[in-house]
User: Which sequence fits this backbone?
């Protein structure tokens, strides 16, 4: 070692700091992480971010296309305040479809951080400020509207709250089940191990989709939306824990014989201390990675179930519920913007996968962080 | 002759039908160093681990002369062994695998004190500092992680962890085998110094006979799970009775580079 300063810096760096340094080198994973942080924040405060509530209808704009935010009007004048043009609607005589064009007379400036529709923030307190609303009695639909004239932009972010949280809640339940059963099997071994192993094999050999469908169909129709939400989460995690449990079991079996674990037992450490102080920390990074990679599965599961009409049901808004509107050919041809929730699903799932890859590389002390 | 510290009688252990240790019996005297030698797979490590109950023996007894009188180590439940850990500890073979890579040196050496109920932080730190001096490690090592140390330094950390509770009995399980020769000498000298200062008793498991010859007072030779010969180091090394011992001794390289190594032939000896 000729560089002493670097040497001492690394010597006192915690394993977590070292992992963070490796993760930072993984540009795509870092970008995905930032994207996820952003979209989760937006979903968390979605009442404030979006201009309308999920059930607010604008009868002047049914099946209207997305608006674009402009700085230059049709005469080419620059406006410091961004604005949108209102719609001119005309029913096409041949197709009987509504056709919308921009109306230069309906110029609605966007006003930021001002009063709009009042809402209850997380159902707790009344508030009426929004990130942006259309001024002069106008309306703004950045992602267009659906067949009832509801603002799709607002619905996508309300839906994000449900879909994104189902991923996290589901994964937390998966983690609890997986670590519990995997830990029991790996640490106790013997009969317990064999019982858990067989259970995992049976669960993994079942075809998931039909089983999800059967279980979801058995959720009572009269259940409130919040109970259905948790019902769906439990169904998803009931089948998701097996992979994690296997990994945890394997790590436990390997670590039980590690010398530093034997050493801990020999200085008199109790079972709990051995497990939580010595064994869990050395594979916590693997658990985090697996969990991150499991979130998209949960989100896709919810989307699939709701898309098929057996998961969440309106009036709950989730990405799957929104996609349900885009089930037919007519939508794809006439109102393609209703597919936008699908884009969000794709982006989120991809971001989770990329970030999971980055975490996996960062957790591996021998990786080069994506660069050879 | 000083008093007996440890009495092992008819110890047996097999792993899924494979016999690892068969009918091993020996005594260990206070403040002496007893070596157990034998080739790989002869069961010497298993004996060491059975004594400290890192693994549970099948049959046989181990009695330990603790500060509260004689106890049977072999049939105590693990919970009741915990207080006895103060008096008997182990130094491991692999200084890389035996230290938790996610703990700092301070946390590693402090942990036994925490487990055994030393609540005062400052008193813990004093003891850690004291032991650090004894094993000749720098004081600024405390905040570092094991990956920042060389093999010899790590083994010093392992020794510090074993000694911080002030045990009277230490099992050294191939503790110098993984180190290179010059570092081996340092660690052996350290172990000998500590033995003199603290009155330690060592059970020294090794396959390197020259190390055993140097450090031990008495020696057991093991082959295929059984003790084939035992006696003082001088007796065993100069007047070996068993063919197996002769075979082992013939495999020690001479310090004179011109003397060729001529190990005996197994088949000629009928082993």
Assistant:
């Amino acid at each position: 070692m000729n560089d002493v300063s670097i040497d001492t810096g690394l010597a006192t760096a915690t394993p977590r700091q070292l992992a963070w340094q490796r993760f930072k080198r993984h540009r795509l994973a870092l970008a995905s992480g930032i994207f996820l942080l952003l979209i989760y924040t937006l979903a968390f405060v979605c009442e404030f971010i979006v201009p309308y509530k999920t059930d607010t209808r604008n009868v002047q704009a049914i099946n209207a296309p997305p608006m674009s935010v402009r700085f230059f009007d049709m005469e080419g004048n620059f406006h410091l305040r961004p604005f949108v043009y209102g719609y001119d609607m005309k029913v096409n005589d041949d197709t009987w479809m509504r056709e919308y064009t921009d109306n230069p007379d309906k110029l609605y400036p966007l006003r930021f951080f001002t009063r709009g529709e009042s809402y209850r923030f997380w159902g707790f307190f009344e508030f009426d400020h929004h990130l942006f609303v259309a001024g002069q009695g106008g309306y703004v639909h950045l992602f267009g509207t659906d067949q009832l004239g509801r603002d799709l932009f607002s619905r996508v972010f309300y839906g994000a709250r449900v879909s994104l949280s189902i991923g996290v809640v589901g994964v937390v339940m998966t983690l609890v089940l997986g670590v519990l059963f995997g830990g029991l099997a790996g640490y106790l071994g013997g009969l317990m191990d064999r019982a858990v192993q067989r259970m995992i094999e049976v669960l993994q050999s079942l075809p998931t989709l039909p089983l999800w469908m059967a279980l979801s169909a058995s959720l009572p129709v009269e259940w409130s939306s919040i109970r259905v939400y948790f019902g769906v989460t439990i169904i998803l995690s009931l089948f998701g824990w097996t992979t994690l449990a296997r990994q945890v079991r394997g790590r436990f079996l390997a670590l039980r014989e590690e010398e530093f674990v034997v050493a801990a037992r020999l200085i008199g450490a109790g079972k709990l201390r051995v497990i939580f102080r010595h064994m869990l920390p050395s594979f916590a990074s693997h658990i985090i990675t697996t969990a991150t990679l499991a979130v998209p599965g949960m989100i896709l599961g919810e989307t699939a179930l709701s898309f098929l009409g057996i998961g969440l049901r309106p009036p709950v808004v989730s990405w799957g519920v929104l996609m349900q509107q885009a089930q037919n050919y007519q939508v794809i041809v006439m109102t393609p913007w209703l597919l936008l929730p699908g884009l969000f699903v794709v982006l989120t799932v991809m971001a989770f996968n990329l970030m999971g890859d980055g975490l996996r590389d960062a957790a591996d002390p021998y990786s080069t962080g994506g660069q050879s | 002759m000083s008093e007996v510290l440890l009495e092992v009688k008819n110890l047996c252990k097999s792993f899924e039908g494979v016999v690892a240790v068969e009918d091993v019996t020996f005594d260990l005297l206070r403040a002496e160093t007893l070596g157990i030698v034998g080739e790989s797979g002869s069961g010497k490590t298993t004996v060491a681990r059975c004594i400290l109950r890192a693994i549970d023996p099948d049959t046989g007894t181990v009695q330990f002369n603790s500060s509260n009188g004689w106890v049977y180590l072999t049939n105590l439940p693990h919970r009741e062994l915990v207080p006895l850990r103060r008096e008997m500890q182990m130094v491991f073979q692999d200084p890389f695998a035996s230290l938790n890579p996610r703990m700092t040196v301070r946390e590693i050496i402090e942990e036994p004190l925490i487990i055994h109920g030393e609540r005062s932080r400052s008193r813990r730190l004093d003891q850690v500092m004291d032991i650090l001096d004894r094993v000749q490690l720098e004081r600024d090592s405390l905040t570092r992680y094991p990956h920042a140390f060389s093999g010899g330094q790590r083994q010093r950390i392992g020794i510090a962890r074993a000694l911080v509770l002030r045990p009277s009995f230490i099992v050294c399980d191939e503790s110098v085998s993984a180190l290179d020769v010059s570092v081996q000498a340092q660690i052996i000298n350290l172990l000998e110094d500590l033995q003199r200062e603290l009155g330690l008793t060592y059970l020294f498991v090794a396959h390197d006979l020259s190390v055993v010859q140097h450090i031990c007072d008495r020696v057991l030779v093991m082959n295929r799970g059984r003790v084939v010969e035992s006696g003082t180091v001088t007796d065993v090394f100069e007047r070996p009775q068993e063919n197996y011992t002769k075979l082992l001794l013939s495999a020690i390289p001479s310090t004179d580079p011109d003397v060729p190594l001529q190990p005996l032939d197994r088949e000629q000896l009928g082993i």
Remarks:
- Chain A touches chain B through 24 residues (CB under 8 Å).
